[in-house]
Amino acid sequence: MSFLRAGFDTSASALAFSVFELARDCELQQQVRQRLRAVLGRHGGRVTYEALSDMRDLTNVINEALRMYPPANFLDREASRDYQIPGSDIVLPKGTGVVVSVTGLHHDPRYWTEPHRFIPDRFKEANSRDRPNYTFLPFSAGPRTCIGMRVAYLQVKIGLLHILNNFEVYAVPATPNILRVDSSKLIVTPAGDVVLGFRRIPSM
Ligand code: HEM
């Protein structure tokens, strides 16, 4: 049950937001498509684990979607001992509940320039080097981190790969400019329909 509950909507959310953002930036979409086809070509056109691992651009797109729209947008913990927050005189007594806003962290301009823009390249190694640890927490961290992270990347990558290799996706007049989140859902999900245009293209 845990695997189904934790693994299905979260990955679907990451895939949907990735496609939404790529539909709004056709140049970026084309660039990602060209690069993933180049990788596919090097792997004989076969969608293998190795080919998917080579598709860094897809990872960056997914990471950027997870940054802007973390499917689990908060983490909750309980202080297991009295804890003084470093650099302050605030002490959290043992047993205090703590809620970490992942959305807040992922939009903090101290760590993310232009936080409201979709820029997958910010996850390139050269651009990530100086970012402090624990500023990107879509899968949480520590002993209770997501155990399905690798499966998640794998299935979202496969979905994105097949969509981008077979379709051009684009915004239509009914496509919303700003996505509102459905507050009745635990996993971050857009409120209402997100209409996009799909045009079939010759696949590789
Ligand atoms: C993009 C997709 C996913 C995201 C963003 C995500 C996010 C998370 C987060 C944030 C947690 C930790 C919650 C916490 O620390 O309080 C978690 C836990 C968990 N996830 Fe994922 N997850 C994803 C996909 C998956 C998949 C595909 C599976 C299984 C195949 C999975 C299985 C689990 C399980 C079983 C836990 C509980 C681990 C524990 O309590 O020790 N998740 N996930």
What does this entry look like structurally?
This protein is α+β, with helices and mostly antiparallel strands. Helix content is 42%, strand content 12%. The protein has a domain at 2-70 and 119-136 and 148-200: Cytochrome P450 (Cytochrome p450), CATH 1.10.630.10. The chain is globular, with a radius of gyration of 19 Å. The strands form three sheets. The chain has a two-stranded antiparallel sheet with strand order 1-4. The model has no long low-confidence stretch (mean pLDDT 95). Strand 2 and strand 3 (91-92) form a beta hairpin. The relative contact order is 0.19. It is built from seven helices and six strands; from the N terminus they run H-H-H-H-E-E-E-E-H-H-H-E-E.
Short recap of the structure:
By secondary structure, the chain is α+β, with helices and mostly antiparallel strands. Helices cover 42% and strands 12% of the residues. The chain has helices spanning 2-23, 26-42, 49-54, 56-68, 102-106, 125-128, 149-166; strands at 74-78, 83-84, 91-92, 97-101, 167-171, 196-200.
Summarize this structure as a short list of keywords or feature phrases.
204 residues, alpha+beta, Cytochrome p450, two-stranded antiparallel ribbon, 7 helices, 6 strands, 12% strand, binds protoporphyrin IX containing FE
